[in-house]
């Protein structure tokens, strides 16, 4: 089927760009001797996860237990929930899942350790357990050093748990646009992980994994010899937010290509300089800023509510016709993906694949 | 099941508040002799739609053909797609559906009329057709008066279509916070509908329906004698955005109660004044501003990405404990609903119903 026959709004993936991104990150990992455990929170798709594993990834991350279930059901053998998991309901699901695959999770409080241990014992399984440290983002995580060592000791003693290492992701640093400032903050976060690793070594606790990193900072976590696991997600797809993140030369980072688009139809042409599209905030997330039109710079995006947006052109001769289809670059890839049930894979202007987004809406 | 046993994040509906809202709007319609055709774009749930029809609504609106399919399949006999529909794929789905229920749609261009007519003829069905006018929002719609009359004449002549009237919704006016300014703009929009109705009458085209209105402006469209159909949606649930909309006394509008909540768990307590919840932008939409904590004023909401948010308390004694569950009022109800598969209906602290959100993600 030719792309222009696809009804809209649709979430399309440029397969050439997608495969190039997959390859670029895999090559980076091999070059620097660092494992990839890409984040399935971005793609929520077992088909995509399988492709990452086929390129050498040691497994996947998820943020939710229900995402982990979807990935294990989709054939992924090693899944790490890189997030705190509270309450026996979720922990028992995770402990049950750990009978079928290698499962681990992250903690920042003794109560979480006690609950996870109880669930693993109840289900006669084993859960890997990592301590999250606050690298500077002030979200979850204990402070580096002694507080982390204290939790690690508790994990090491807890029945049903194996101590795996540290979670040290610096979310807030990913979108610092200036390269030097992003580097400075990333290195500060990396140093916190290093000091904590050393404190753990002093009490005989080795870190199998020191993991973190995102698409904005992976070059430092991946090359300074402290981290051995990169949990990158957005590199596969890219979005307007990451196109604002600059490299050392002050240019937008260019190693990854835009592969994800919202395909949309001009549903109204109410003025000579304006086209209304059938994609609003239910089709293209605006949580981190607006989407932009692909392949055309001289056009302004105007919010139009849940089911519409407008494109306002400086040159009225460029305005697409009623019924024309256009590609939008999502402002933020992850929440956009979470609103769709399928990726439409496209190559050379033709549909080549449909991949189900099996963990769409997986919140638990 | 007690509410506190519900795993999180979950979308919960306070059934007492929900039923009061349903009743309040139904009573307004009866008092003013104006029909209700509530908007299913808000709730996307046939169970809720059935309740609206049981209270006297003449049918439902949707914004998408796929939403209309979900509502007809759920037993709604009269559905109006209050939006332009482009392309034979969608129009043929709508024409096929029109064999099973009364269906109508809205247009603002002759090409849409030709396409809708062709689809209705092909499927031997009939589609109601209304002309959308631009009431001031500058989104879709032709200008009031002659341009609308021109389209209405085309509809009246087109095989398979029946001319139904006008679509005159003023989206941008809904959230004007000041009452007097909101009233002024609403009345200007209403006047445009009235003038267009009069121009249509002069050429012998009667409007069966003149519809529009939202929760912010329904009091004027519902009481000035021009509109005969209110397409309100958010009144059922309410959200932070509508709590900022003021009444004539400068107080937040109070006729509708907050009935929709995102139920969330404290998953981390990393600092004495701060709790991290398991609900980020994938659980509670931020497109129209942040959510807020229900029942507590002295607390700041801090964005935490896709799967987290933080509550920062001025009084550390008020911070909930790790594992506690809290209720968030969504910033914007519609896109929040669109991320969930179920409503959990709650009364007196106990779960009473589970309603499937059958049109969740219905984008086509």
Number of DSSP strands of chain A? 17
Helix proportion of chain A: 25-40%
- Unreliable segments of 5+ consecutive residues of chain A: none
Oligomer: homodimer
Overall form of chain A: globular
Largest interface: A-B, 59 and 58 residues
Structural category of chain A: alpha/beta
Largest sheet of chain A, described in full? 9 strands, mixed
Order of secondary-structure elements of chain A: EHEHHEHEHEHEHEHEHEHEEEEEEHEE
Strand content of chain A: 15-25%
- The end-to-end distance of chain A, rounded to whole angstroms, is 36 Å
Radius of gyration of chain A: 22 Å
Helix run count of chain A:
11
In round numbers, the mean pLDDT of chain A is 97
């Amino acid at each position: 089927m030719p792309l222009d026959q696809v009804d809209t709004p649709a979430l399309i993936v440029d397969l050439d760009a997608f495969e190039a991104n997959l390859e670029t990150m895999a090559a980076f990992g091999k070059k620097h001797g660092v494992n990839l455990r890409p984040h399935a929170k971005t793609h929520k798709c077992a088909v995509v996860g399988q492709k990452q594993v086929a390129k050498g990834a040691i497994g996947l991350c998820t943020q939710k237990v229900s995402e982990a279930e979807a990935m294990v059901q989709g054939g992924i053998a090693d899944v790490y929930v890189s997030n705190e998991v509270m309450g026996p309901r979720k922990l028992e699901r995770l402990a049950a899942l750990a009978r079928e695959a290698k499962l681990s999770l992250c903690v920042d409080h003794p109560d979480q350790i006690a609950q996870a241990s109880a669930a693993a014992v109840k289900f006669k399984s084993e859960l890997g357990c990592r301590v999250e440290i606050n690298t500077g983002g002030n979200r979850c995580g204990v402070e580096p050093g002694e507080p982390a060592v204290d939790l690690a000791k508790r994990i090491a003693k807890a029945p049903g748990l194996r101590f795996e290492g540290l979670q040290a992701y610096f979310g807030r640093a990913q979108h610092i646009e200036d390269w030097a400032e992003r580097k400075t903050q990333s290195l500060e976060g990396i140093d916190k992980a290093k000091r904590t690793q050393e404190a753990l070594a002093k009490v005989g606790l080795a870190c199998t994994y020191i993991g973190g990193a995102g698409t904005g900072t992976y070059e430092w976590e991946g090359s300074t010899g402290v981290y051995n696991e990169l949990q990158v997600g957005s590199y596969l797809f890219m979005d307007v937010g990451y196109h604002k993140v600059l490299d050392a030369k002050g240019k937008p980072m260019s190693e990854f290509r835009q592969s994800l688009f919202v395909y949309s139809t001009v549903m109204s042409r109410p003025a000579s300089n304006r086209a209304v599209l059938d994609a609003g905030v239910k089709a293209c997330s605006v949580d981190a800023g607006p989407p932009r039109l692909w392949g055309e710079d001289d056009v302004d995006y105007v919010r139009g509510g849940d089911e519409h947006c407008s494109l306002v052109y400086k040159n009225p001769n460029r305005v697409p016709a009623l019924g024309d289809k256009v590609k939008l670059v999502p402002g933020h890839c992850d929440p956009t993906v979470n609103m769709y049930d399928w990726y439409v894979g496209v190559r050379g202007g033709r549909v080549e694949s449909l991949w189900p987004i099996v963990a769409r809406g997986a919140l638990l």
